[in-house]
Structure formats: structure tokens, C-alpha cells
Design goal:
single chain; 211 residues; alpha/beta; Rossmann fold; 10 helices; 6 strands; 13% strand; elongated
């Protein structure tokens, strides 16, 4: 069995939603709750984000931050308010349609929290294309994908790592780490700045490499 594995951020969707959530929507809710200025609310949020840091899995969880800021009761309102900020790259749906027509199983393997992955896939109506979703931070308590994670993904899917074709934009986590586990890994570079047999310029090019 062949499995097509996708990273999420900067591969399927851009960062527009994330920027809106962390630097606008959450600070705005904090501003309303605390009755402070826009700048003070943003500063408070940024200081809190920095105090936890990207090396802590909590940093990736909107639920954690909304609980910490005392705005968890507005979680659905906040997320739904910026649902339209989720934006897919133009090559995503054509690639997924092509794989579906060929009967290739698709999954998502991302550093993002499970709730963020699910929300973004649902917001753009592409959840149906993916049979499984794996979050490094939620399911494995890790801040980033590594080779061992891909071994576990393969085991859960009942395939060898050599049967997984993974694509993503980060050279370390989407190419080197999965490759170390025997995964067929490809680095997505839509800018065209990088080159090599492992580099693809679009998801359309990636699909062509899957047997």
C-alpha cells in the first residue's frame, strides 16, 4: 500500500489563519476581558507566548492559551470568527483529487495541534480526503516530527515506512527526519529557490512521483 503524507502549514494552508489567531483574535478577546488597550493586550499575549516558548507543546494549543487568558468560554466564537482566514494553496485540491481518483490513501502529519489541523481541514472542506491525522504535539507530546514518529505512523497504518511518500516545506522535519526513517520524503519549495531530486515546486509535481 502507498500512502501520501502531507504536512499542514505552508504545505496545504498558508499562515494567514495562525497570524490572525495569535496576533489579532486572541489579543482582542483579552483586551475586551481585561479592559486594556490594544497594544497592552498584544504585549501581554506576546510576553506569555515567549514565556512558554516553541519548545513546549503547550505553545501550539489554542485551547491552552484561551484557558490561560480566561477566555475559554469564547473559544468557538473566536475560531469561527476567523474561519475565513484559512487559505489553501491553489495546487492543494487538484492534487488531492488526483490522488483520490487513483485510490491513494492520504494522511496529514504535522507539528500543529490536532485541534488546529482539524479546524483548518474542515474550514476548507478537505477533511474527507484524509483517512488519518497525526499531530506531533497532541498525539506524541513532541514539538516537532522526527524519525521515530514516522516509524509509529507506519506501524499504525500497517505499512512499511518505504510505502509512505511525505511532502512538506521544512527541510529538517519534512525531509531529513522522515528520510532517516526510510520514508520517501520530498521538500516543497514553491519559490523555486531550492533544487535537487528531493525538491518539488508544487504538489502537482509531488503527485507525479507517487507510484
Amino acid at each position: 500500500m502507498v500512502v501520501a503524507s502531507f504536512d499542514l502549514d505552508e504545505t496545504l494552508a498558508d499562515r494567514n489563519f495562525d497570524e490572525s489567531l495569535w496576533y489579532a483574535a486572541i489579543p482582542y478577546a483579552v483586551r475586551e476581558k481585561e479592559g486594556i488597550s490594544k497594544n497592552d493586550a498584544l504585549r501581554r499575549c506576546l510576553e506569555a507566548y515567549d514565556s512558554v516558548g516553541k519548545d513546549d507543546v503547550r505553545w501550539y494549543s489554542p485551547h491552552y492559551w484561551m484557558e490561560r487568558f480566561g477566555i475559554i468560554d469564547r473559544k468557538e466564537e473566536i475560531l469561527e470568527g476567523i474561519r475565513d482566514r484559512v487559505r489553501l494553496y491553489p495546487d492543494v485540491v487538484p492534487a488531492l483529487n488526483a490522488l483520490e481518483e487513483r485510490g491513494v490513501r492520504c494522511i496529514v502529519v504535522s507539528n500543529a495541534s490536532f485541534e488546529m489541523i482539524e479546524f483548518k481541514l474542515d474550514a476548507e472542506g478537505i477533511s474527507r480526503f484524509f483517512s488519518r491525522v497525526f499531530s506531533a504535539s497532541t498525539h506524541y507530546n513532541r514539538v516537532a516530527k522526527d524519525g521515530n514518529l514516522f516509524f509509529d505512523v507506519a506501524e499504525k497504518l500497517g505499512v512499511k515506512t518505504s510505502g509512505i511518500y511525505h511532502v512538506g516545506d521544512n527541510e529538517e522535519f519534512d525531509y531529513l527526519q522522515p528520510k532517516s526513517a526510510g520514508v520517501n520524503a520530498f521538500l516543497l519549495d514553491r519559490s523555486g529557490e531550492k533544487s535537487g531530486g528531493h525538491v518539488v515546486a508544487s504538489l502537482g509535481d509531488y503527485v507525479k512521483l507517487i507510484p
